[in-house]
Amino acid sequence: MTVLDSFAESLGFTPDGFQLDACRAIEAGRGALVCAPTGSGKTVVGEFAIHLAHARGTKCFYTTPIKALSNQKHRDLVTVYGEDRVGLLTGDVSRNGDADIVVMTTEVLRNMIYAGSPALDRLSHVVMDEIHYLADRERGAVWEEVILGLAEEVKVVGLSATVSNSEEFGRWLAAVRGDTEVIVTDHRPVPLHQHMLVGTRLLPLFDAGGRGVNREVLAATARAEQHRFRPARRPDVVARLQREGMLPAIVFIFSRAGCDGALAQLAATRMRLTDEAEARRIDAIVDAGVAGVDPADLEVLDFRRFRAAARRGFAAHHAGMLPAFRHIVERLFNAGLVKVVFATETLALGINMPARTVVLERLVKYDGRAHVDLTPGQYTQMTGRAGRRGIDPVGHAVVQWGPAMDPRWVAGLASTRTYPLNSTFAPGYNMAVNLLRTVGYADATATLERSFAQFQADGDVAADLAELERARARVAAMTESLAHHGDPGQVEALLEYLDLRAEITAEERAAKCRALTERHRETVTALRQLRRGDVIALPRGKRVELAAVVREQHGGTEPRPTVVGVRGFTGRVDPGLFPAAPQVLGTIRVPADAARRPGRAVGIIASEIDRRGITGPRRLRRPKARPNPRLKELRARLRAHPLHADPVADQAMAAGDRLREARAEVRRLEGRVAAASDTLARTFDRILELLAEMDYVERDDADAWRVTAEGERLARIHNGADLLAATCLRRGIWDDLDPAELAGAVSALVFENRRDTGAGIDAVPTEALADAIAGIRRIHGELAVDEERHRLPASPEPDAAFAGAMHQWTAGAPLAYCLEAAAANGAELTPGDFVRWCRQVVDLLQQVRATGYTERIRDNASAAIAAIRRGVVAIAA
């Protein structure tokens, strides 16, 4: 019996053809790339690689992109192999790292490779789960570092979502790793039925043949467009799914506040999806999951509301929640106890939470820069959660229709099951010194030239050059044509005039965006400052309703105080409700139980507001736009331009716009060709030149590059601001800080504010910490000048908005106090955000402890790490 035969027998089901093909390739000593839909069972291939290595007495590492996936996979493998044979390394957790089977995040393996760790001895296989994460713009380079850095005899098993350029990716893997089998399948073991929810009507998206859009959907959406359409309320959506037998369900909502709001909407109804026996099981799991959390912290975390919702069978799941809460939700959902989860797209990243139905409320999401349409890959990744193998005969994907949503576009999105995998690999400072110290300059250059990024660039440059020539020819033809319509000398003047108009349009949009951001910031600040009993004016359609605050909320990303209105409105209000920051019109006394029983308090509050003679405006209006000197200057230049209001110019406007677009396309293509020609090796050279100026590397007598003692320290700092951190340590600007101040200073190198509030930045508790932050900024400014001179990407700017809160937490302050300190300093954090940033500060502090120049700073880093790892931060690990 072969190893594969014994493994197949242990599964308890017959493996699919693609699984067997991949396993045979691995057993034959080849690498494998498996591209398959979510839920298709591709992890079976990775599990076989582990089984094979175990049977042969070698090692297998299983890498994942996120710690939650590592934790989950570790639990699965412990069940099969036993706790003593399986290790876990995630940065936060180091458990049994010398085992023959180790689950880890990809960054941990990268660091092991650069350090030449003895744990790599006898390593025969590396499974890279979610290998398509290589395209992630923030962390994708790490995957390529691992693939390029592993010893030649190690076989890589890549598990990927279906990508459209799998053959290209497979060719590259074969080129750098040796013989690699590429297995691609679009087969789902559980068929997926696509639906559209129009109001409360649940309709098949496709016709009976599955090829075209269902005519009934087109008719229903057309009628909805013509008439006043109201989307179904979330409780109604859940009720409909329950009637159709389509629970359990995951409802994807692309904002944390939206998930929490959906949970509040269900909680406000009498809906219950569990029986008493299930509720008791839920209580036991929930209570075990928060054992050890301080009761005061549970109050801040709104634990009672979380527990009450879970008992009734629904929950939220997003990155803003405490990790312990998310783990509880995952356990409850997988146990069939929670029937509906409102989640952000982070849940789609490989966490094992399959459902019968997936609902997408919208097909637009915020990507950190702008609101963009979902890609086919994102759609497939999320809807791939629908259909539990061995439980559901079919899975269901439901898209809620909204105005201006074209069902044909949705059908195209649902039909396109692939997306391209594009490399984000580029050398950085840490990578440069590590390559130089481990393989030397020549091999380092060769390694960079062997990257997938360079592989793709070399393949694209020929096509881009041909397209550039065609684009230049179009520009020449359009310029000649436009010149025939008038004086040839007027063409450039016309383009100058059009550029001016475009600049005005862009500035108007930017001004509007700034105004919206400013208004939101002012509203958030006003809501956070409200106190119990304050009376404000609520917009209610075109009318205004006075309301009193009955429960304050000072922390959180977006404060949502609870109010009771004189006309019967009760509930939480959020910043998006107000056209302008609410003003306190007066203050009254409210009943003690008004927050728990708001309906009973309406009459009392209305009488008290009337008795005190508090009145409000008849209508709430948006504030007037502030003067914009830049816009005023641009408009003056437009009016003064010779072509302004020229009828001849007006006739040539359309042709001029087309020429402008054609010239922009030429510039875009020229940039792409230049970027492809500027190879990664040349970037590496420019990095070494800068590092040489700063004495992190040097040339020896034979004119060969070598890493200095300072460079050896830089090699052990794995952070987006690695060079900045190394220089801060080298110059000693953190040497005299106590542990809490050190944690606060280090936080400025890892923290990134989700939203620029512009409030109270740099309000830190001690003068020493303020001086340290000023020193960090000064060094960053010097570095920015050097990077520009060497034509290198700019290092991320330090952000001190979390420094005060980090200092207070390290000094022993309670969670509520630290969240308020963060908010006062411009960092809008949920408890989950707070824990995540604390963990990242710990990660960099561990590197400070390993690379610090003095015993004092190393001891202070150790003390800070111990102080941070308490309460909710400790339980999160």
UniProtKB/TrEMBL annotation:
GO terms for cellular component: Ski complex. SMART domains: DEXDc (SM00487), DSHCT (SM01142), HELICc (SM00490). One of its GO terms (biological process) is nuclear-transcribed mRNA catabolic process, 3'-5' exonucleolytic nonsense-mediated decay. It comes from Corynebacterium sphenisci DSM 44792. Keywords: ATP-binding, Coiled coil, Helicase, Hydrolase, Nucleotide-binding. Residues 23-181 form the Helicase ATP-binding domain. Residues 240-437 form the Helicase C-terminal domain. This is DEAD/DEAH box helicase. The keyword Ribonucleoprotein does not apply. PANTHER family: ATP-DEPENDENT RNA AND DNA HELICASE, ATP-DEPENDENT RNA HELICASE SUPV3L1, MITOCHONDRIAL-RELATED. GO terms for molecular function: ATP binding; helicase activity; hydrolase activity; nucleic acid binding. Residues 652-679 form a coiled coil. PROSITE patterns: HELICASE_ATP_BIND_1, HELICASE_CTER. SUPFAM superfamilies: P-loop containing nucleoside triphosphate hydrolases (SSF52540).
